[in-house]
Amino acid sequence: MLTTNQILQQGRFRVIQPLSGVDFEAFDDVHQTSVILKQFPVGMKKVMTVAQTELLKKSFADEAKTLMRLQHPSILKIHGWFTEVDANYLVSEFAAGSFLSEMLKRVKKPFPLAEVSNWTEKLLDALGYLHNFAPPLVHRNIKPENIKLTPAGEIKLIISSLTEEVNPGKLNYLPLEQIWSGLDAASQNLILNSYDEDAQKNLEKAADASSDIYALGATLYHLLTTQMPTDALERSIEILEGNADPLKSPHEINPAVPLEISKV
Fold first, then answer.
1. How many other CB atoms are found less than 10 A from the CB of residue 103?
2. Residue 115, CB-side half-sphere exposure with 13 Å CA sphere
3. C-beta of residue 168 within 8 angstroms of C-beta of residue 233
């Protein structure tokens, strides 16, 4: 854990304040500007050999180089990376404003439809950019906590990792294929008994563009209703047992949402 005024990279970065568990605002003395440092501890979960540690660092550097190539107005810009002591760090632009998750907690009411529609258009454009990148990239973790609104009204999608493990305690925005490998055998069998082999192949596939679209839809649902979307596993089990989908339609919760948008 970094501390306030801690110096990194031989004096280049000075920590200003923590932003979250792994994100820190820092001042870049070379470019004379504020940045965000995201910390990725190395070897904290298990004992690693020197070779394994070096391989992990190389993998991190390769991914960081890919992220640095991204150039889109609705994606937070990645400036660089470095390794120091027992952690890797990703350096990104500092964007003032609030995460949509913070705004949901603060406002405690649905966002206006016009605003959400505007954000959706920009976020879809950003996803189209990622999915058509060379090679195609999948975000894998779209949720209000990874979307920031600047004081100028610009929406920014945060990408810190293309391979980051998703927090198992926050499954509400993820499609079933992204949580499938973490399910217990009983839950997997309950679902597979109602489907064929093709369905099983889809559930066992890696996350792709459709996974991001699902996550964005779940995020928009939350923004328009203030209700956390029911996770895909609970929905699947309820429907397979012959019950109604526990996910209420947005227009039933927020009458300001038109029926055609609610269906989408």
1. 17
2. 11
3. no
Phi, psi of 175 (to 5 degrees): -70, 165
| Region label for 151, one of left (φ > 0), alpha (ψ between -120 and 50) or beta (otherwise) | alpha
Q: Give the C-alpha separation, 208 to 115, whole Å.
A: 27
Euclidean distance between CA atoms 64 and 66, whole angstroms: 5
CA distance linking residue 209 with residue 132, whole number of Å: 10
The pLDDT of residue 224 is 98
> How far is 65 from 60, CA to CA, in rounded Å?
9
Q: Collapse the DSSP code of 165 into the 3-class scheme (helix H, G, I; strand E, B; otherwise coil) and give the result.
A: coil
Angle at which helices 209-225 and 100-107 pack, to 10 degrees?
20
Listed as ranges, residues in the chain with pLDDT below 50 are none
In this prediction the pTM is 0.89
Q: What is the pLDDT of residue 164?
A: 62
Enumerate the β-bridge partners of residue 18.
24
Looking at residue 44, its pLDDT comes to 56
pLDDT in the model for residue 21: 74
227 contacts: CB under 8 Å, gap ≥ 6: 221, 248, 253
- Eight-state DSSP code of residue 76: P
Note the pLDDT of residue 240: 87
Query: What region does 85 belong to: left with phi over 0, alpha with psi -120 to 50, or beta?
Result: left
Please give the single-letter amino acid code of residue 89: Y
* Measured distance CA(215)–CA(208) in Å, rounded: 11
Tell me if residue 27 falls in helix, strand or coil: strand
pLDDT for the residue numbered 90 = 95
Could you count the other beta carbons within 10 Å of the beta carbon of residue 228? 14
Q: Three-state SS for 146?
A: helix
Which helix or strand (DSSP H or E) is residue 68 part of? Answer: helix 50-68
